[in-house]
Write a structure and sequence with these properties.
The structure holds 2 protein chains of 2 kinds. By secondary structure, chain A is α+β, with helices and mostly antiparallel strands. Chain A is built from 9 helices and 10 strands. Chain A has a 5-stranded antiparallel sheet with strand order 2-1-5-4-3. A 5-stranded mixed sheet of chain A has the order 6-7-8-10-9, with helices on one face. In chain A, helix 4 packs antiparallel against helix 5. Chain B is an alpha/beta fold. Helices cover about 30% and strands about 30% of the residues of chain B. Chain B contains 5 helices and 6 strands, in the order βαβββααβαβα. Chain B starts with a strand and ends with a helix. At the A-B interface, helix 3, strand 3 and helix 4 of A face strand 1 and strand 2 of B.
Chain lengths: ~375, ~170
């Protein structure tokens, strides 16, 4: 043993050898020393094969035979970790060299590198932990960038919404004026076409009556009375259209019931009406807004939807009035240009709701009817 | 009486640092798991025997190699003579998947014909997962290798992955 160690130390200038094996050209162990330092004795043992002691050489058999046969070359496997029971982990380099001494052809020896390798392990440990920290930081930064990008997109979208809302707000007075002017135009037309014509006819009849014989004048007077009755009806209709007194006197529910009866009589369109919690008074702004939305929706349906039936629901929630109006008529494409009456009517609805800080959604499609949902916050009267 | 033959074969675990190679071996061989990360340098060799069939046992000589190692010079011997390899990536770190191609190329050069199994480890870290099934399936297809999603921590699929590797060279 000593002679082999001395030979290795002097001839190969190797220190810190703690195990070796001398092998013949058949790779049979001729002499061994300290192999218990390399391998767990439970796995190895006195009669164990070379591969039990040096599992690191499994798979390299051809190379070992080659070195033994040629008497040249060497093979090294650096930094093998040995974890024997009840011992601190140690590192060693396993080296195989050709030899012509001691009746052997191969010398396998283990060089202890524990001190150097342990230091290296600490350095690698620090380097890897640093890399993991950097990777984690990069992942966090990427997530932060993504969140920032998403936030910027949301801010841009919100800014556009606010700009759009501002534009609508700026246009509101103008549109209110338009709506008002449109209503005035309608009233003027009614006054001119209906009332004015009737009054002209009445004036003519009365003038003629002064020049006619009594019998003929009496006939004219009957006709004049008929015209006056017609005029009174037209003025009442006009007045009701402008603002039904019932709404102010009795409230929303009676006004709606009266309006539905009148609407069905005029249009032959039945209204399926469901309500809850509205048999009470609300602020006049809420009552007139709710009434006008429903009135406008019914008028639009009568003009454009071509239906025989509609559905209206008015439900009082905790602090808001929910309105839903549905028809299953022709509908319209939201992107299309609408008839002026419809456009003004829809704008009028939106503006009335906006003035109460409420919301209104219109869902329409060609052939799918029109569905209107409005939400009117109520301020309880004290 | 029929004799049982035991064959010894070398297998390598390849992959970037901190993907869990040592944890997989520790779970497979010793049925243990440790939370603390300890970098491997050089090679840690373990052995485990499997019964392949009534007449044959396989002693898997498992080389747990340091991640990020360049297999040149003496280190080339780490992967020479390997019968198979487990290519290990970390489901929570995308870069660990792409580097597997480099490790596979090194192994194919040093040990032509070696069998592969692809292992995507740390399946227990569901919230941190970044690798997708598609990415993993593409790599498995590229190497014609079985794919296993494992957790050394929860002992999920570890035994199955090693058993598959053993069966591929039996």
């Amino acid at each position: 043993m000593d002679r082999v160690l001395e030979w290795i130390t002097t001839r190969l200038a190797r220190q810190q050898i703690f195990a070796y094996a001398l092998l013949d050209d058949e790779l049979q162990v001729v002499e061994a020393y300290g192999l218990e330092n390399v391998v767990d004795p439970v796995q190895g043992g006195e009669n164990s094969s070379l591969w039990e002691y040096f599992p690191a050489l499994i798979g390299l058999e051809d190379r070992l035979y080659e070195i033994a046969a040629s008497s040249e070359g060497a093979l090294e496997i650096p930094q093998i970790i040995s974890r024997l029971p009840d011992s601190a982990p140690m590192y060693y380099n396993l080296r195989v060299e050709a030899i012509h001494e001691f009746g052997a052809r191969l010398l396998i020896f283990a060089l202890d590198t524990t001190e150097q390798s342990s230091l290296e392990q600490q350095l690698v440990q620090q380097r890897n932990e640093l890399r993991l920290n950097i990777e984690a930081r990069q992942r966090a930064e990427a997530a932060l960038r993504q969140a920032k990008d998403e936030l910027e997109i949301r801010v841009r979208e919100r800014t556009l919404e606010i700009e759009d809302a501002n534009l609508q707000l700026q246009a509101l007075p103008r549109r209110l004026v338009d709506v008002q002017e449109n209503e005035r135009r309608e009233i003027a037309r009614e006054l001119h076409d209906e009332i004015g014509q009737a009054l002209t006819g009445l004036n003519l009849l009365l003038k003629m009556s002064t020049r006619l014989p009594a019998e003929a004048a009496r006939y004219n007077m009957e006709e004049a009375r008929g015209l006056v009755n017609e005029l009174m009806n037209k003025v009442r209709q006009l007045s009701l259209d402008l603002r039904p007194a019932m709404l102010d006197d009795l409230g929303l529910l009676p006004a709606l019931l009266w309006h539905f009866d009148r609407f069905t009589a005029q249009t032959q369109i039945a209204v399926q009406f469901k309500h809850a919690g509205i048999d009470r008074r609300f602020s006049s702004e809420v009552e007139i807004t709710a009434y006008r939305i429903i009135q406008e929706a019914l008028t639009n349906a009568a003009r454009y939807a071509d239906v025989r039936e509609m559905s209206v629901r008015v439900i009082l929630n905790a602090n808001a009035l929910g309105i839903q109006i549905d028809d299953r008529g022709k509908g319209f494409s939201p992107e299309a240009v609408h008839p002026p009456g419809l456009s003004v009517g829809l704008a009028s609805m939106r503006e009335r709701v906006a003035s109460l800080n409420g919301s209104i959604f219109l869902d329409a499609a060609l052939g799918e009817g029109v569905h209107i949902h409005a939400h009117l916050p109520i301020r309880e009267q004290t | 009486m029929t004799m049982t033959r035991t064959v010894q074969k070398k297998f390598c675990l390849l992959g970037d640092f901190a993907v869990g190679k040592t944890s997989l071996v520790r779970r497979f061989v010793y049925q243990r798991f440790e939370e603390k990360y300890l970098s491997t340098i050089g090679v840690n060799i373990s052995r485990k025997e499997l019964q392949l069939n009534p007449h044959e046992r396989l002693q898997m000589v498992i080389w747990d190699l340091a991640g990020g190692e360049a297999f040149t010079g003496p280190q080339a011997n780490y992967i020479k003579g390997a019968s198979g390899a487990m290519l290990v990536c970390d489901l929570t770190r995308a870069i660990t998947l792409s580097t597997l191609r480099l490790y596979a190329a090194d192994l194919q050069a040093a040990s032509p014909g070696a069998a592969f199994v692809i292992v995507a480890n740390k399946s227990d870290l569901v919230a941190q997962r970044v690798l997708t099934e598609v990415q993993l399936a593409e790599l498995a297809e590229e190497f014609q290798a079985p794919l296993f999603l494992t957790s050394a921590k929860n002992d999920e699929n570890v035994e199955a992955a090693f058993a598959m590797l053993a069966s591929k060279i039996a």
